[in-house]
């Protein structure tokens, strides 16, 4: 049986992911469970009681709680998400901004990096009082194969949710003809030179239209599209998505060595910090 799993750690903040889990559970008709990992069996009862106390302020039916022992919560969740394809995993992220804290949170980041699956994330500004269904999946693409690797999963999710697909692509507003500069949502923020030719909306809209055609051919789904303008792609995407009712963002991200092993690309990080809707984040298998 398919199941919505919300990863919690006993804190009230981690339970913010419950709002997203409930939304998915109600829309997909899947059972919902809170899942918590503790270092050893001796801590299981204390964690369960902490979760039950935190749930006292939540309205509605209380979800089931499962507490399991493991010394590595991130590895445990990543392996479970990768191997148990009948679960959808929801998590909360702090999305802090300072450079020294420019992390999704080591557990959530590792799960995204190692699971090879969509991970559903509730950022610090997600509206947790909105129980309306997800009506629109906003899929971010930037012209790179990496950004488009999420399209099959986005199409499958759209069919499951009976939601519309909306493709968005961000371009820098002052790009000059012959020097098309597009911001990559999968790389650290910064302009990169594109191919020669016009950098007008016509060129960019041709790209997203071609992606929409491929979605129609491969998955039988119609997709709307839009070209966004902004010096900061994270801000452009966040503002756009936050203004759309019933939206969920769907994005890819990278993960490299060193600090980037637990950090997201700066664009996806900025989006998670600012956006008011949930985010489904994916790191392609070839990046693992």
Please describe what this structure looks like:
This protein has helices at 17-28, 44-55, 73-83, 106-115, 145-148, 151-161, 201-219, 233-242, 266-274; strands spanning 3-7, 32-38, 64-69, 87-92, 119-122, 136-140, 164-171, 181-183, 191-193, 223-229, 247-252, 279-282. The protein has 288 residues and is of the alpha/beta class. The chain folds into two domains: 1-92, HUPs (Rossmann fold, 3-Layer(aba) Sandwich); 125-288, 3-Layer(aba) Sandwich (Rossmann fold), CATH 3.40.50. The protein has a ten-stranded mixed beta sheet with strand order 3-2-1-4-5-12-11-6-7-10, sandwiched between helices. A two-stranded antiparallel ribbon has the order 8-9. Strand 2, helix 2 and strand 3 (64-69) form a beta-alpha-beta unit. Helix 3 runs parallel beside helix 4 and helix 8 (233-242) runs parallel beside helix 9 (266-274). The longest helix is centred in the C-terminal third of the chain and has 19 residues, at 201-219. The radius of gyration is 19 Å and the shape is elongated. Residues 96-104, 175-199 and 256-264 have low confidence and may be disordered.
